Amino acid sequence: MGRLVSAAQKLTIDFDGDGVIDQWGFGGLNWGAFAGRIGAVTLDVERHKSTYSTPLVIKSITFCRDLIYRYKVHPPPSVRVDETESFSTGKLSMTIAGAWNLRMFNRSEYRWDIAPIPMDTKDRKRRGGGGGVGHCICAQTRHPNEAWRLVRFLSGDSGQRALARSGTSVPVLKRAAYSEDFMAPFDRPAKSSYHVIFDNFVQDPIPPTYCRGYLEYTRRSTEIHGVAS
What's the whole-number average pLDDT of the chain? Predict the structure, then answer.
């Protein structure tokens, strides 16, 4: 994480010298992404208990806070930015994003690339995680045959290649994910960097953060801490 801070400091620039930062080194306080990569567990799914007070979770949250107030490379709360749009326009130099942002980022006039989310120590084992597009059929559906035909198409070769071309998700079929259907539509990032996306799925998984009642837990947590949902 030290290298991220060092790079962010160099990329935080007031171009016209008016005292207002024109380009921030980093944007998007995704403390959960940092926590997950170093193995922090945010929820004890067996006991349905929050583990936010554990050292690794606190370390991740503290790091995000320090990006604002200690290193001054992230916009403070008074400066509202949209991470995706601000990265595309050059307002943010670095951010944490998913593969679904590829199409939006490619609208930018700037050159950009991808890299793994940084770790806190060299000897810590990296964990990976990601999201995809899952399909299921309601048990009470009135049209089970039609639903099955749709799910079979979406999960098959044609559906997965269409998903690849959309740039909204990484196909679960390797032959579609590693094909030109997924890589061809974009001139950035460099094709040599796509392994970063795929490597993320073959690392040790991030500990589960969801369980039965999770939505209720999250809603109640935001009410207690006064966070708007």
Answer: 85
Using CA atoms, how far apart are residues 154 and 134, in angstroms rounded to an integer?
Answer: 9
Structural domains of the chain, count = 1
Q: What is the CATH number of the domain that holds 23?
A: 3.40.190.10
Structural domain of 44: 1-120
- The answer to the question of residue 93 being in a domain is yes
On whether residue 23 sits in a domain, the answer given is yes
Q: At what angle do helices 144-155 and 157-166 cross, to 10 degrees?
A: 60
Q: How far apart are CA 26 and CA 4, in angstroms?
A: 9
Give the separation between CA 33 and CA 145, rounded to whole angstroms.
39
CB 10, CB 26: distance < 8 Å: no
Confidence class of residue 28 from pLDDT cuts 50, 70 and 90?
A: confident
Give the predicted TM-score (pTM) of the model. Answer: 0.78
